[in-house]
Design goal:
heterodimer; A: mainly alpha; B: Actin, Chain A, domain 4; 6-stranded mixed sheet; 21 helices
Amino acid sequence: MFRVELLPSNSHAQPGWSYVADRGLGPSKAATAPTLGRKRGIRDAGKGGDISSRRANAIARHIADLDRENQRDVTIPVPVKQAKEAGARKTREKTTSNVRRILMSQKTFKNHLDDEEAAIAAGGGGLSAVQIGGGGGANMNAAAVAAAVKAGKDAVAATVARRSSTPMTTPSTPAARRKRPSAAVTATSTPTPAPSQPDTTDAEAENDTEEPKPKLLKTEYDNDPLLQSYAPKMPSDRIMQLLLAEPALSYNASRVAPPHASQPPRNFCYMCGYWGKIRCGAFF
Amino acid sequence: MGTSKARAAAKPAKKAAPEVPSRRIPQKTFIIDNGAYTMKAGYASSDATTTEEALSACTTIPNCLVKTRDNRIVVGPQISSTVNDWNEAMFRRPVEKGYLVNWEAEREIWEQSFFEEKATARNKGIRIPTPEDTTLVLTEAPNTMPVLQRNTDEMVMEEWGFGGYVRCLGPTLNAWNEVHSLFGDPLRKPETDILPADCLLVVDSGYSHTTVTPVYRGLPIQRAIRRLDIGGKHLTNYLKEIVSMRQYNMVDESYIMNEVKESVCFVTNDFTTDMEKTWKANLKRQAASDDSIVVDFVLPDPNANKKGFMRPHDPLLAAKKKKGALSGLSSEILSEDVLVLGNERFAVPELLFRPSDIGMKQAGVPEMILQSLSVLPPGLHAAFLANVLVVGGNASIPGFMERLEAELRQITSSECVVRVRRAEDPICSTWLGGSRLANNREELSKVAISRSEYQEYGSGWAGRRFAGNI
């Protein structure tokens, strides 16, 4: 749109006063003064990051397109049985009401998903409640398992911290050479080592312990915290039973999360497929 | 609150009661791995000694209705024999996003595949003459909605009335396969009874999605199951979209583009280098070298009854063709349509590892494995990382395994052994595991329900039982 306005005829600043935008000094004032246009500010709000809502919509549409079975919407009816063919097939006594209901149902996956989301939002009503709720026992189980997972993580974190303070040792030092027997000792002292872990070093270590060399095993470095190796224990049978007894997650909960380390987005040219910084207007 | 505990307490008592032998699960076992693209079906054979023998009983059937260009509608099992012209073929699949949603279509496909009255050459080995004397092992994708599970149970037991029935997660069946030799573990002893692997992390990359399932002694650990919403369908559609934009309009040619994808696509181990190799400005320099990535795909010609195929790229062909008959090329070559595929070959399967390339906010397959393990006790991490089994059609993409192993190695702790293996037959591996489970009658009868039980307790009970609550 064109706008007509009267420009001042003299360009030099005049003494006196004029209106200026109040950019303010305090953060509260700075926040109220948008640097960009008002509309763009609204569009970007709450989207997190540099992605505009228009862009997000375009991506969602693109992903939905990739999920399509056919490019165009087509209805492919199930072919009607010929009388001859129908006779050739086994005649069943009768169809139950359940079967009739299922066959008549025209619900798509989207409909079912919406139903499930609604049921979960309403506090786990309907059919999903049976499996998702699970009663008090399940809650207790979840707490126990969570505790087990957390305890293990803490231990890992502790060892990582300890290890990071460990000075680098070359394999030729005697301390490092003695490391393996001590590792074997700790491994055998654990009640249940990982059964199906075919670690070659583990196998060697076991061979070492089988040989009757108790003198070699006992050294003054045995209790050196720098040389202790840590292998997380297999969880107990009870924990495993609790883990296996847990109910299935919902469809949305089982979707994989965004990548942990944010990779820089890669952009490609739509025509040649090579790296491209500019997105041409064909899609976005 | 208290009821579930009471139920759990009642369970062992129930098992100990002499009820178990009285439960009659029919000996004959039929296994259906009901995938979105194809279903894998067949009887479990008890006397098969080798994997090949057992697999010979497995038949792969397209799980769809096809509408061809001349408006014929063809149902699953007849497709391979009747459809020759795949141009503009349209599909209707009863399995949507990996989950069996539309039973109207699925029933028709099952009827024509398994329940024909007469035995013919086509349904040999997959006909079920008497469902009431047959135990059905049916797979489902992880995290199926309870409503869909109940629909499935009701259809199987009320429409066809199988004598015995097991519904289980597809990936878990892989644990019953002989994976020790695959991973190069020494066999402990000649085992007589078939037991599942202790710890197996199953990556199932199929048509609709890719899932990670930690399987512990044949049972899934539900809290750690993760799903990436990218499967073979997305790759095909992505390739279709790119090619339609750059070369010919192929938007209606899903089937043909799937063939193109299967024959040309590969997973790169070095994205940046391969990208440079295929850059147009670098092509001239590359032309002399043999390891050029660019290939030609000659599109199928149904009128001449010719199939599509791949061949090395000939940069001069386009120029020669412009000259037409003067160039001295045969009319056959002049009439063929060729797609030139460069970076499309590896940029498309790259989505499995970098979903962010199309803006999808989901982690790639290697990180998905880590996310799955992160909710498990650390004591299990090493055992699962050392036993990663990849199944599903995408496992056959060249380079997939190498890339997965390399990336997984990079992001895991150096103390863990990382072993990633592809199943011998990645597509039928789940079915094969089911057939081995079927030979362990004791384990099978633990998970199966019989027809009379279903009639007595109903579908709600069946659902709870398959969920492991009873």
